[in-house]
Amino acid sequence: MNTPSTTEVLPSDEGKLKEFITRRYGMMLDGEICGSSKDFYRYLNRMLNGQASCHSINIPSEEDCLSAVEIMSDHSDKLEHLVGKVEYGDLVENVAISGYRTDGVYVVASQKDEPLKLMNLQDDPDDYGTIPSEFQVITDFPIHYWGHITDNPSSSTLFQNAYWHNDYVWFDPTKVDTPPSKSIRHSKDEIYYPFTHKGIKYAIVASKNVNLKGLSYYYCSNSFGNASDRFVEYLHNIGYSDAQLLFTTEE
C-alpha cells in the first residue's frame, strides 16, 4: 500500500477526496470525513502508519521486577532523559531486569506536555503482559500501533531484551461514530461486522456472531486469528486494508 503524504495536493471536495483515497490506497471510506482534507489526511496517515516507539531505562533491582509506581517515586532521576521525547502509548524497557517475556516493560500513560507517567502492562487476558485496556484502538490509536511488535513477537528489534507474547488490542465498538450493528455472512464460518469512524470503514472479522456491546480485546492481525487467508483476501478485494480489520478472539 502507498503511504499518504501530507504535502500531496488533495481534492478539497469531500466526495472527490473519498474517491481519490479509495482509488489510491484501496481503502473504503464512508460517512463524513473529519475536518478539512488535510486534517483528514493527517488522521489517515496516523491510522495507516502510526507506531509506538520503545525507549530504554536502566534501573537495577534485587527484585524480579519494579512496578511503574516504584520507578516513578524512587527513581525519577533515571527518567529525565525521556521527558519531552516519549509519546502517549510508547513503551519503556528497563534493560536491567528485562529478558523474560515482557518483564520490565511499561507503557507511557502521559502526553508530551504532562509530567511523565508510566503504567504497568496488564495481566489480563495474557498474564505475560498485555497493552492496558485504557489504550483503545480506532478511537485513540491505530489498530497496528503496537503491531510491529506483536506481529513478530520473537524477532522484534524494538526491545533490547524483552519479547512480546500476544496480539491483543482493546476496542469498544460502542464508542465509534457508526457502531457495528449487523453482521454480514460471507460463508458458514466467515462473518464480518462493518462500522465507520471518522469517515473510515472498518470491520470486525469473526467465525460466528459475537457480543459487541462494550470494551473487549481483539487480535490486531490474523497471525493469531483463525480467519482463512481466502476470507482476508476477499476483504482486501472489497476495500478493507489490514489497517481496517480487527479479528475476534471468540472460538
Overview of this protein structure:
- The protein has a domain at 10-49 and 172-251.
- It contains five helices and ten strands; from the N terminus they run H-H-E-H-E-E-E-H-E-E-E-E-E-H-E.
- It has helices at 14-25, 37-49, 68-74, 147-150, 229-237; strands at residues 54-57, 91-94, 105-108, 118-120, 168-171, 184-187, 190-197, 200-206, 216-219, 245-247.
- The strands form three sheets. The protein has a four-stranded mixed β-sheet, covered by helices on one side.
- Helix 3 (68-74) links the parallel strand 1 (54-57) and strand 2 (91-94).
Q: What keyword list fits this structure?
A:
4-stranded mixed sheet; alpha+beta; disordered N terminus; 251 residues
Give the structure's gist in a few sentences.
18% of the residues lie in helices and 18% in strands.
N to C succession of SSEs: HHEHEEEHEEEEEHE
Largest sheet: 4 strands, mixed
Radius of gyration: 19 Å
Query: What portion of residues belong to β-strands?
Result: 15-25%
Question: Strand pairing plus helix content: what structural class?
Answer: alpha+beta
Helix content: 10-25%
- Integer average pLDDT: 83
Ends apart, CA distance between termini? 31 Å
The tally of strands reads: 10
Question: Uncertain runs with pLDDT below 50, 5 residues or more?
Answer: 1-7
Tell me the strand order in the biggest sheet: 1-2-3-4
Number of helices: 5
Overall 3D form: globular
